[in-house]
Amino acid sequence: MPIDPNFKKNLTIKDNHNGHAVWGEIEPPNKLGIHGTNVAVDLDICYGCLRCINVCTVNVFVKYPTPGNPVSKLKVDPINENDCFFCLACEMVCPVDAILIERKSSGDTLSSLLDY
Q1: What letter would DSSP give residue 27?
Q2: What pTM value is reported for the model?
Q3: Tell me: the pLDDT tens digits for 67-101?
Q4: What domains does the chain contain, in order, with CATH numbers?
Q5: Are strands 62-65 and 74-77 parallel, antiparallel or unpaired?
Q6: Which of 8, 35, 52, 70 counts the most CB atoms within 10 A of its CB?
């Protein structure tokens, strides 16, 4: 199941981690919540393939060890989410739809960016 596109309405901020909000239920190592706001990663879905790290040209993500987590011992954390320029590449390469990039307007999609 992909990240909840309405997580900001459906969840509350429960913590702050490395300068970004952590949304939803947090019970490590099993429940890690959604990290970030403009660049959000559902760490309960992420399984650490690192494709987002490989495709991001501004290093929004860092490796985030999660010992004892049943899904993966390595996840990604959007600690540099303020550096994101909304290219959406990370969202597109995520095989489990764990990443959600906040759209600044209804036209912010890759196809609209290519129209320029």
Answers
A1: B
A2: 0.88
A3: 999 999 999 999 999 999 999 999 999 999 999 99
A4: 7-99 (3.30.70.20)
A5: antiparallel
A6: 35
